[in-house]
Amino acid sequence: MARRTANVGRLIAGLLVLLLAYLAGVQVVWGPHLAGSPQNPRLAIAAEETRWGRILDRRLTVLADSTVQGGRQVRRYADGPLYAHLLGYRSARYGLASLELRYDPELLGMPAAAPWEASLGLFGRTARGDDLVLTIDAAVQQAAAAALGGHRGAVVALDPRTGAVLALASRPAFDPAAVDARWPVLSRDPAAPLLDRATAGQYPPGSSFKPVVLAASLGAGRATQRTTLDCAASVSVDGLVITNFEHEAYGMMSVPRAFATSCNVAFVHLGLATVAGPIIRTARTLGLGQAPRFDLPAAPGYLPDPRSLGRRGLAELSFGQGSLLVTPLQMAVVAATIANGGVAMRPFVLRQVRAPDGRVLAAYAERGGRDALPAGIAAQVAADMVEAVRDGTGAAAQLPDVAVAGKTGTADNPHGAPDAWFIAFAPADHPTVALAVLLENAGVGGQVAAPAARQVLAAALRAQAARGGRP
Amino acid sequence: MNGLAAAGAGYSEAGRVREVNEDRILLADRAGLYAVADGLGGHAAGGVASDLAVATLRAHVPGLMARDVPPPQALVRALREANQTILEHAAAPERSGMATTCTALVVGARESVIAHVGDSRAYLIRNREVRQLTADHSLVEELVRRGDLAPDDAAAAARRHVLTRALGLDADAPIDLLSVPLAPGDVVVLTTDGLHGAVTPEEIAAVVRATPDGEEACRTLVHLANARGGLDNASVVIVRVRRRWAARLARVAAPAALAALLAGGAGVYQFEHSYFLGVRGDRVALMRGVPARVLGVPLFSVVRATPVSMAAVAPAYRGRLRQGIRVRTPEDADALLADLVHRP
After folding, report:
1. Are residues B177 and B290 both part of a single domain?
2. How much is the average pLDDT of A45-64?
3. Which CATH number is B118's domain given?
4. Do both B154 and B66 map to the same domain?
C-alpha cells in the first residue's frame, strides 16, 4: 500500500516536472517566437488598441506615422512611394509587408510591454508602440530614387564599414497608403510595382561579376596583376563564340587594363585558366547564391554547380552570363566587401528601437561580419576598380576630388535590351559608401548605370560629411 | 456612550515661499486629540509658539481626560496653560510678539468638542455637505460679522491676515469652545490659512471623499495649495469618525492598511521625485512633478532650463516634448535629451 502511494507520488511529481518544463518552454524558448507570430491574437488586439510606432530615418526624419480618422487608425507615409518597398504597408485587407511586417511586434510595443504598462490607460493616454530608427538616410534615398528616374530598377547603397543600408530603392513603386484601393491594379501591373527589385529582383550580373572572377583568379594564384591576357575581338569555346562589346579588339593587355576596358574575351581566358571551382567558391563566400540575412526577405539568386558547368558554361560565367543570377542587394554587398578589405559586413537597416518618448531601447552599430576575401586580394581588385573608373568603362562615375572605384555591367537577358549594372564604392582609399545600381533593359552599364551611381555616391558622401564622418 | 472612534492623518509643509514651517499639527488617535497651530512672529519665533501650543495640548489633555475631566474643560485648561507659557517665553526680546493660532479637536467617548483661537479652521464633512465650524478671529471676519464688510470683499481684503485673537497676545485670551455632535462617517478637517486660503471647502471635501487614505488626502491637499502659489505654510489634519467596533476591525486589518499606506506613500514619493522634460519658452527644461494641470494649475515646477533649443530637437520629438517626457533622474534627462536632438 505504502509502495503504491509512493508510486502515485512519483507519477504526480513527474507530471509536475513535465508541466513546469512545458511552461518554461512556452516562456523562454517559444515565447519570443509565439509573441511575434502573426497568429498571436495579442498582436491583433494590440493593433486595435495601440498607436503604431513611427518609422524614422537616421536623422530622425519621420517616414511613417499614424493618425486617427473616424475612430480608425490610419498609417501615413510622409514621402508616399519613396520608401514603399522598404517600409511596406499596413493594409486591413492585404496584411502587412516589409519592415511593417518584420517589426510589427516592436511597432506595437509588444516585446517590452509589461502588464503594468497597460495601466497607462488610466492616465488617459493611448498606448504607443515603439519607434524604429533606420540606417536609411533620407537624402541618399532621395538621390537613389532620382537616379533611377523613369527606369525600372533598383539602388542599394550601404556603409561598407558597418553594413548599414543608406538607401534601398526600387522602381516602379506604389503609394503604400493606397494599397487597399489600388491592389487590383498593382497586383496585375506587368511592370510589377509591388516587387522589391532591390532585394527580390534576380538578374544576370554581366560584367559587374568580373570583380568576383578577378578575386578568384588572384586568390587561386592563376593570375597576377602583371599577367597579360589576349583581348582579341572574339574567342570560340567548344563552338560557343564570345565577342567583345561592339567587337572591340585590343590585343594583349594586362589584367588591370582588361578589367578596366571590361574585355570579355580576356576574361574568358582568365576564367578558363582559373576553372569553375574557385570562381563559384569565391562567389559564394561573397554572398552570392544564397539568401542574405537581412531585415527583409531577400532572394538567393543562383550560382551554377561547378561540376556540371562545362567549358561553355565556365566561359559564360567568366563575364557574368549564363545561368548566374544575383540581386542588387547581393551586388552591393560584393562592392562593400571589396571596399572593406575583404570583410563582409552583414547588411542591416534597423539602427535603433526607441520608446515612444525617444529613449533608445536597442541600438545596432553593426550586425556582424566575416572574412570573405584575403585583404591583399580585396586591395588588388579595389585598385583595378579604381582604374576602371579613372580610365575605363566606368568613367561616367567619376567625382571631382574623390577617387571612385567601380565596375560596369551590361547584362544580356532574354527579355529585351540589356540590363545596366554599376557597382562602386568611394572614396577609394577609405570607402564610406558602396552601392549597386541596376536599371532593367536600360542598355549599357557605363552609359546609364554609372552616371546614376555617381549621383548617389555624391549624395551619400555629402550626407556623411554633414554628419562629421560618423558612420 | 455613543461608541465613536477617530482616526487622524495630517500633513504640513513650509510651502514654496517661506523657508521655515511655523505650522504644527498634532495627531493622537488614542486620546482622540487633534490640532493645528499656525505660529506668528519673526526669527522663527512663530514656530516656538506653535510648538508650545501643541506640546501643551499633548502633555495635558490626555491626562486630564483620564482623570475624568470633561473634554471641554481639558481643552480650555490646556490652551490657557499654553497661552501663559507662550507669554512667558515671549518676554525674551528676540521672541517678542510671538503668538499662535490653535484649533484643537477632541473626539471623546461621550462628547466631541473643538477649542479654537485665531484663523485656523475646522470643517465638518457629512454626507455630501461641508460646513465651516469655526469663525476666524481675524480683522476682516470681525468686520464681516459686524456687517461693515461684504463677505465677497473679505477674501480680497489686504488685511485679511491680521488676527484679532491668538495664543500669546493677551493674558486672558477668550477661547471659542464648540460642541460638535459627531456621527459615524463624519470627517472633521482642521486647516491653517495657508491651506484654506488656497483650497475651497468644496475642493477639500472632494479630495477627502475621493481619497480613502487620510495621509494621501492630506498630502494631495497641501500639494494643491502649493501648486497655487504656496505663499504660506500649509497644514491639514483629517479626522475620520467611525463606530468603535469598526475601529477595532480596522486594527485587525492593520497590515492591509499599512500596505495601503505604504502604497499611498510610494505614490506621493513618486510624485515628489518625478521629473520630466518639457518646454519653457523655446528651450527644453527639466520639470518636477507631472505634466498636467488641475483647474488650470500646473502640477509641476521648473527645475532648470537646458541649453537645448526646440529648433535643435528632431521634429519627430517636438510634439512629445510639449506633452512632457518622463525621466527617472535629472542625469537621465541629459542622456535622453542627447538622443532627441536633430542629427544632420
Report:
1. no
2. 83
3. 3.60.40.10
4. yes
Cβ proximity of A331 and A420 under 8 Å: no
> Distances from the Cα of B314 to the Cαs of A61, A192, B341, in angstroms?
7, 36, 5
Number of domains, chain B? 2
| Claim to verify: residue B179 and residue B281 sit in the same structural domain | no
Q: How far is CA B185 from CA A105, B31, B182, in A?
A: 51, 19, 9
Are residues B140 and B276 located together in one domain of the fold?
A: no
Residues B142 and B180 grouped into a single domain: yes
Contact between A200 and A294 (Cβ < 8 Å): no
State whether B68 and B32 are in the same domain.
yes
CB nearest to B344's CB, from A54, A357, A467:
A467
Is B253 a member of any domain? no
Q: Who wins on pLDDT, B257 or B120?
A: B120
Question: Under an 8 A CB cutoff, do A58 and B343 touch?
Answer: yes
- What is residue B67's DSSP assignment? T
Average pLDDT taken over every residue of chain A: 89
Domain range spanning residue B88? 4-247
> What pLDDT, in 10s, does the model give residues B122-140?
999 988 888 999 989 888 8
* Interatomic CA distance for residues B307 and B314, integer angstroms: 15
**B326: chain A residues, CB-CB within 8 Å:** 357
Tens digits of per-residue pLDDT, B221-230? Answer: 998 898 888 7
Contact B67, B100 (CB under 8 A): no
Residue A35: is its pLDDT beyond 80?
A: no
Query: Which of A61, A357, A466 lies at the smallest CB-CB distance from B326?
Result: A357
Measured between beta carbons, the chain B residues lying within 8 angstroms of A467 are: 343-344
Q: Assess whether B180 and B114 both reside in one domain.
A: yes
Angstrom distance (rounded) from CA B192 to CA B123: 11
Q: Given the residues A91, A207, A217, A318, select the one marked as catalytic.
A: A207
Instruction: Report the 3 state secondary structure along A307-339.
Output: HHCHHHHHHHHCCCCCCCEECHHHHHHHHHHHH
The confidence band for B2, taking pLDDT boundaries of 50, 70 and 90, is low
Over the stretch A143-152, which tens digit does the pLDDT of each residue have?
A: 999 999 999 9
The distance of B320 to chain A (nearest Cα, Å) reads 7
**In this structure, what are the phi and psi dihedrals at residue A46, rounded to the nearest 5 degrees?**
-60, -35
- State the ipTM, two decimals: 0.70
DSSP state of A283: H
The model's pTM is 0.63
Domains, chain A, ranges and CATH?
A: 140-173+196-466 (3.40.710.10)
Q: Taking CB atoms and an 8 Å cutoff, what residues of chain B touch A466?
A: 344
Q: Which of B315, B340, B344 sits opposite A358 (nearest CB)?
A: B340
B259 inside domain: no
Is-catalytic flag, A207? yes
Q: What is the pLDDT of residue A161?
A: 96
Whether B255 is in a domain gets the answer no
